Amino acid sequence: xxxxxxxxxxxxxxxxxxxxxHGTTMQANYGQFASQASALGAWLQSAHGxxxxxxxALYMPNRTEFLVALYAIWWAGAVAxxxxxxxxxxxxxxxxxxxxxxxxxxxNGNSFSAGVLPAGSTELGIDTxxxxxxxxxxxxxxxxxxxxxxxxxxxLFYTSGTxxxxxxxxxxxxxxxxxxxxxxxxxxxxxxxxxxxxxxxMSHGAGLYNLIFVRAGARHVVPQxxxxxxxxxxxxxxxxxxATMFAAPTMLKRLVTVARDQGATGDGIKTVVxxxxxxxxxxxxxxxxxxxxxxxxxxxxxxxxxxxxxxxxRVIAQRDHPNWRxxxxxxxxxxxxxxxxxxxxxxNSVPAGTCGEVLARGPAVxxxxxxxxxxxxxxxxxxxxxxxxxxxxSDDGFLTLTDRSKDVIITGGSNVYPREVEEVMLRHPDVFxxxxxxxxxxxxxxxxxxxxxxHADQAVTPEQLEHWCRNSMASFxxxxxxxxxxxxxxxxxxxxxxxxxxxxxxxxx
Length: 509
Description:
The chain is of the alpha/beta class. The chain has 17 helices and 26 strands. A 9-stranded mixed beta sheet has the order 2-1-10-9-11-12-13-14-15, sandwiched between helices. The radius of gyration is 23 Å and the shape is globular. The N and C termini lie far apart (54 Å).
């Protein structure tokens, strides 16, 4: 089933229901939302030859038109390729090339310099091409979305990997349908009165959550800042009422700090769904003490988006439960469409309380990696997703994560994979070796630290490395600190001992 059918149905049932908001200003009701998506989808087909299965990218900060473009892509039967707008244009262009996209939606149509996008890819600005096209199609009679099977590709999500190059996670309409329908079962109830606030990037999990809110005919709100600002979120919630949002733990800390300073208690906030990074129990207790039972938690990966385990607000708020503290330190129990087990190195299940790799199976798990059968075979084994995360299940079924075997660094809710940073830095002519690790940071959760060995008789400054990285990668991936060593610690096989580097870092701090 084509997920655009959900928008089509909501518009038929409640065409006058408020749908898209920029701040507190309504931009479209559901009838207008669906009409715009249908018209834009028809324009993609007629003016640009977009056909079912073609890939169309979205590379922009949050805006309500992101949803219009997303549903237009699906209306035409095409595949959405949301790209993190924080990525450097050269990084975004690599994704466009790998995904073989025909079109890239951007803000103004000028995000890419001439020759950056691969041949065959065209940039379309929302404020230029798209709005002009919609203006000429005001008399367009909405059609029904292209019919698709559940196995049709819907969302191609690029997540970095240990190879240093992003991998395209293939998510089907069936995958995303299962994910969305799990939300009211396992995370939070949804109604037409809700307001889903998009403060985290819509190219990631926050954007995926739009589905269940569209199906319920709820409101979709993009803050005027188009991002996360604690004061703005508190003000919006107080005016909109029944506000729900996805947030990284670092966002929660900032929200609590601002609210406490002004004596606010989260008036108007219905639910904050936490995920995307390590959530410390002490921070959650702090938030509960200030805001009350308004928090849910989820654990997922791009390969099983937002949907491995969950802990609803009623469980998080259950302070009288004897295992409450332990549960707060966990990531909850499996989603209703997902099985979870813990396995040893041979992928045999281990008993409760025993650490091992977290494996997940169910209809929300990806179809595989785009054009990467080897990575697919390594990650999907006998139907089980190898998450690469280490944890254990308690006797009552709660999953606690203890480590991330993939060494991902999560800073401000965004994933940074050391290999990507290392490969960029190793291209610097004066750098001989480099190893990148994460270090605790009170504001961002973690920060990127690079241990650098230069070529003999060569000197390079942190400022020079900063400039090098700024011109080659997204800003959030750049190291915040550079530590120079004469050599990197290694084992007898020549493997860099990052555990030793982390020890050295703790001593430097």
